[in-house]
Amino acid sequence: MSTVERVRPAAEDARTEGSASGAAPEPAPVSAGASGTEPGAAVSAGRAPGAVRSWLRLFGSEAGLTFRRPRNIAMLAVLAVIPVVIGVVMRLFAEPISAEAQAEGGGGIFTQITGNGLFLTFAALSVLVQLLLPVAVAVVAGDAVAGEAGGGTLRYLLTAPAGRTRLLAVKYGNAVVFGLAAVSLIAVSALVTGLVLFPAGPITLLSGTTIPFAEGLLRIGLVVLYVSAGMAALAAVALALSTLTEVAIGAIAATVVTVIVVQVIGVIPQLSWLQPYLLTHWWNGFDGVLRDPIATAEMGRGLLVFAAYTAISGSVAWARFTGKDITS
Amino acid sequence: MSERTPRPTRQPTRRGRAVRWGVPIAVTALVAGAIGAGPVIAAVQGDPALPERTAEQLLADALRAAETGPRPMSGTLLQTASFGLPGLPQAAGPGGSTSPAALLAGSHELKVWYGGENKVRLALAGRMSETDLIVGGDQAWLWESADNTATRIKGDLSPEAHAAQAPKALPTATTPQQLAQEVLERAEEGTAIGVTANEKVAGRDAYQLTLAPKDASSLVKEVKVALDGETFVPLRVQVYAKSAAEPAFEVGFTSVAFTPPAPENFTFTPPPGATVKEQSLTEIGRELGADPQQRRERGEELKGDVKTVGEGWTTVAVLPFSVEDLTAESAGGDGSESESAAATAEALLESATPISGPWGSGKVIRTKLVSVLLTDDGRLLVGAVTPEKLAEAAGRK
Amino acid sequence: MPGDTRLLAGSREGRDAGPRGAAGLGESPVPPARERTTEGAPEAIVTRGLTKRFRGGQVAVDGLDLAVPRGSVFGFLGPNGSGKTTTIRMLLGLVTPTEGTWEMLGRPMPGAIPAVLPRVGALVEGPAFYPYLSGEANLRRYDAADPAADPRTASRRIGLALERVGLTAAARKRYRAYSLGMRQRLAIAAALLGPRELLVLDEPTNGLDPQGTREVRALVKEIAADGTTVFVSSHLLAEVEQMCTHVGVMRTGRLVAQGPIEEFRRLSTGEAVMIRVETPDTDVAAAVLTGLGLAGVRTGDGEAVAELGALAPERVTAELVTAGAAVRGLAVQRPSLEDVFVRLTGEGFDVDG
Asked: Which residues of C125-138 are buried (b: 16+ CB within 10 A; e: fewer)?
């Protein structure tokens, strides 16, 4: 015990539990993991901060890093500005555009913006959900692990020790929150723009039924949640790719390219049988909210697809990240 | 892993890694299982659910149920067509999928609400758009959200009149009820009929009638009609061609509930700001696209000249027709729709193979279910039969 | 000291048993280490047969049996590429060993990572921080990652750590604007965020100017004086010589020797002490040295050299003067640690860095 006594007294506070254990080589509460960082909660539960608080603290740190990062703020700003641009353009040039759109047979949603400001939210989301919103989510989620690995900060987080499973979970939660924030921001920006530039009032649904304004707001809330769930599935895919590389831009680019390729596959008629299995196919499923009755079955299927993508990608990310050699 | 073992362990990494990767593999298997297991579980569970019935009993029950009229219900119909048309160009724009003409190829979902006599709503959902047909009492509306247009349909709305008109207006989006009746009428001596009691359609136990033509020259292998075990409402109709294992045409419920739908489904008030029109069914049909329009016009022209040869499964329709008419008519229209129709016609003609015999010569187009013979002497023969049978019919002037 | 025998055993093994790995990885038993572990873990770090074979077959670390006593400043010495960093990454759970086991602070790893690593401060392969955050915010980030760190005391602990490395003034500056030395010091501050029982410092003086190097050395000594075990890797012999109480020597992935530094010094005293006389009268001087009974007398350009043996240098001086040799300079050359290490590793060390 002489060695232990030489340890400086400062170490006696709160964390001497292990050093005093020298008398017996007590086996730690060990999991089967080779780098077994999992049982963090069990061990740290008895410590001062408590498991939940320490999770929240790491999550807060992660979110602070994401939402203070200039690049991410710029992306959110772009996402928030686009509904304003659509609104202003519709306000200034509404007739020609809607006529043109009608000629193509796809202008339905846009023609309704001029009649009701609330529709700007749906129109903006249906435009942004194709590429820009996924790109923003891919940047944050793709950067999550690869960015830290590339910057070398990952090794310090893991020796802190953040715990691999814990860090990955927090990173994923953060990407989901970012997606929710981005979707909400688009919705709010579009809502404000729509109400300023266009008349408000009862909303005509795609089915031709009219619902009161307040219920329209409620349905916008449902749309935000559904689209966020779709983005959460994408975030899981991006996170899995992020664990495969140490180059953040590689993970981000891979995710974006995947999204584009899948969207191309989705419009090839010969591959139409694949559509129900494609993630991107379901992102637009939020239009089910605009039907009467709400297309719960279709949207439920969409959510199941999101859940399946999240589960598979998430478990791949976990398997890869917890078994990975950190050599950066 | 054995952290406690003082001895160095061999290959700890590889084993740990294998265990770890077992998780995503298991998750993937679970998801794949959930996708694939649905029908399997349904088939396994379906076995003992229904009492055995003979074909006669079943047909009688079904006809009885049909006489009293279908029960109020709602559900989602999925229609899949794989006719094997050669090189049919995709005539669908961004909003094109809601056009009923697009139902000719691929698979489509149609929501159905049926609340009893004169209460029907059909909804065809597109991306950010919807086309609705709402029949409620003495009113009928066609609502197209893409154009923000509500059309009030004039004319007789009694179910009989509607049923007579609807197949023409929406030629492929018919309900299983109507299709099944057609099939039942044909159940004559030329058909082998079988019944199984262990089908599961849209989560419901169902009987399945199998109707197979006995004539070898028919292109139809069999037609399967699934009837709900409780209400005897046809839940699914599948038409199998001899050349393929998958149905060439299928329409059936993916979900169905035999509870009266909410009455709101059968009322419609044109929303503020919408264009409101008033049209008859014929006018609507004309607007729905070049194809139905042409078909209708041609149909009217030729109504007097159509002859049939043979009967039952191997009936062959003979009409006067020439290749020049087809291409000229197609090119005569304007706009992209008639262009694509012309392209379709050209593609069809290119795929045609020349044929000749004692009756003369011509070109034959063969799909999975239907053969078409264009004779050089200006006749068009159509039938769900082999080209040889068509040629034989062409010989019987 | 328990390491006595191990130094010699290790060095012998390393030198004459080249194919030790072939004899059986993970079969090289280290009975003393295991006995001690069960007695009460006086070792801060123990490894048994720790091996890392990277994909492609390259063996970075080969059957490492390391024993770092508690309270020691352990110099982990080896040329660049000898497997030091890979070893440190394995110890900290960043890289999974291909074979072998290890314990830290008496607990089996990697299972005890959550319990052990909060008490271990680490600097691995240079500093790494978020360039757009201030020094203080960077430390806060790493502190948040430690589930055992108390957020209520975070500010105080961060302040203390910054003060300790002399970065208090630059705490609010963005990391991007830090100089190389400041970055290195911030990394050391990160390793000192909590009360640590073990510090693992990988090349802590890398890239520092002489002043910075001195500061780091002083800091390490100060930390060690508190009783914290310091495991410091270096490719600089001089650095290890000045800071460390114990040394482990790596060579191409193998540990060729380890033990207290006095053992190495004692080993080096086995070598001959030389006396070198600078003189124009080389012949006279040589005669005197021979006359004194010294062995290995050689003459060169303006100098005469001999093995001093046990003879007092002042006697040689007196004899030379008596003999009338013009002595311009006289030096006693004791064998340095470097000679020992060169012999152990077969390579020279970058003495000056």
From this structure: bbbbbbeebbbbbb
